[in-house]
């Protein structure tokens, strides 16, 4: 392409897709919402970056979340983590966090190839809290397995229906309490964390996303995992290329593992 170098948006190969929204990948946000909005988003992330680097451990939000997740997975044998945003504007954060944590932490070996004893990353799932109440909260309350849960809400609505939002927040707070309390005969309990935002703004969204990024990388350190690769995904890609060339699936798999 006959374009000057300064007209290219560089995407560094050492930045994985799940960590890339802060760079050139964020260009669609700039084009659709404007540069001012994107800069506010970046400022929020930068504030959380600074907090994660400088805040003492007992007040460090990402570190606290990482240590809770490590305890839940290793000591309490909780293998599933559920994210419940009580705000329609935050519903897409669920699949984003699912990719971030499961692709980063869904591993069994250290970077040196040593098997990690015990559990590592959790299965991450969830939905808009108001919808989840009518689908899977029954399982969360009385199912045979327990979960760790993040309930997120904002004190300020994104619409003019203040009374309806008041009811929504009442549900968020009530369900937070209800999800902790299981049947007295249950052998386990849900580990519930409440995350309250003062408002859903680009700056706060940037902070929340950066908070979860730092939580994930800190968890990688605690587990002894490299959170920046995804070898389990790469195998499927290599097999698909072999099958595109007409190789038998079993033969392709045998070649990958030198069988």
UniProtKB/TrEMBL annotation:
SUPFAM superfamilies the record matches: SIS domain
One Pfam family named in its UniProt record: PGI
DNA damage as UniProt keyword: no
EC number assigned by the record: 5.3.1.9
GO MF annotation: an example: monosaccharide binding
Keyword tRNA-binding: no
GO biological process terms, semicolon-separated: gluconeogenesis; glucose 6-phosphate metabolic process; glycolytic process
Gene3D superfamilies for the chain: 1.10.1390.10, Glucose-6-phosphate isomerase like protein, domain 1
Keywords for the protein's UniProt record, in alphabetical order: Gluconeogenesis, Glycolysis, Isomerase
GO cellular component: cytosol
Protein known as: glucose-6-phosphate isomerase
Taxonomic placement: unclassified sequences, metagenomes, organismal metagenomes
